[in-house]
């Protein structure tokens, strides 16, 4: 079994919304063969809590406006370190960069096929590492820390 066309449509819109709000490392997996509760996962991250919330809000608004869907469940709002949006067909995880590294959801789903995403979403790959390197350089006062 593979993710339905509707799931792909939702993932694509959510990924574009995340990319538009400058999410890092947006990736989607077709988990339909290993999970019966959903077809696909979208993972995205951001370097701070405020941006995590902004990305989630944009995804929620875009899917409501463009596709007429609301999440059946939204979890993690209190601290905005890891917010989950459950749309039944897809589940969106937006994590603070530190949680993304710690929980490493990609490791769990690496055997599942990746879902093709819009170019803007693909362009977010590696942004978390680049941001971390820049932050480390700024924190240490090293040259190049103000690119």
Note down, in words, how this protein is organized.
Helix content is 44%, strand content 20%. The mean pLDDT is 91. It has six helices and five strands; from the N terminus they run αββαβββαααα. It has helices at residues 5-20, 49-67, 97-103, 105-109, 119-122, 127-140; strands spanning 24-30, 40-46, 73-75, 82-86, 90-96. Strands 1-2-5-4-3 form a five-stranded mixed beta sheet. Helix 1 packs across helix 2 (49-67). It has 147 residues and is of the alpha+beta class.
Number of helices: 6
Low-confidence stretches: none
Shape: globular
How many individual β-strands? Answer: 5
Distance linking N and C termini: 46 Å
Largest sheet: 5 strands, mixed
Averaged pLDDT, please?
91
- Arrangement of strands in the largest sheet: 1-2-5-4-3
Proportion of residues in β-strands: 15-25%
Q: Share of helix among residues?
A: 40-55%
Helix-strand sequence: HEEHEEEHHHH
Helix vs. strand class: alpha+beta
Radius of gyration: 15 Å
Task: Please provide a brief summary of the model.
This protein is α+β, with helices and mostly antiparallel strands. It has helices at 5-20, 49-67, 97-103, 105-109, 119-122, 127-140, and strands at residues 24-30, 40-46, 73-75, 82-86, 90-96. A five-stranded mixed β-sheet has the order 1-2-5-4-3.
Attribute tags:
about 150 residues; alpha+beta; 6 helices; 5 strands; about 45% helix
């Amino acid at each position: 079994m593979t993710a339905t066309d509707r799931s792909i449509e939702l993932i694509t819109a959510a990924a574009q919304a995340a990319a538009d709000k400058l999410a890092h490392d947006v990736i989607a997996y077709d988990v339909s063969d290993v999970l019966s509760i959903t077809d696909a996962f979208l993972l995205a991250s951001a370097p701070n809590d405020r941006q995590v919330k902004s990305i989630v809000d944009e995804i929620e608004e875009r899917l409501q406006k463009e596709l007429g869907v609301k999440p059946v469940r939204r979890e993690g709002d209190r601290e905005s370190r890891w917010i989950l949006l459950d749309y039944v067909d897809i589940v969106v995880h937006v994590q603070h960069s530190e949680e993304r590294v710690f929980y490493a959801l990609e490791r769990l789903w690496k055997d599942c096929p990746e879902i093709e995403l819009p170019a803007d979403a693909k362009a977010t790959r590696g942004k978390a590492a680049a941001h971390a390197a820049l932050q480390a350089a700024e924190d240490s006062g090293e040259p190049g820390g103000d690119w």
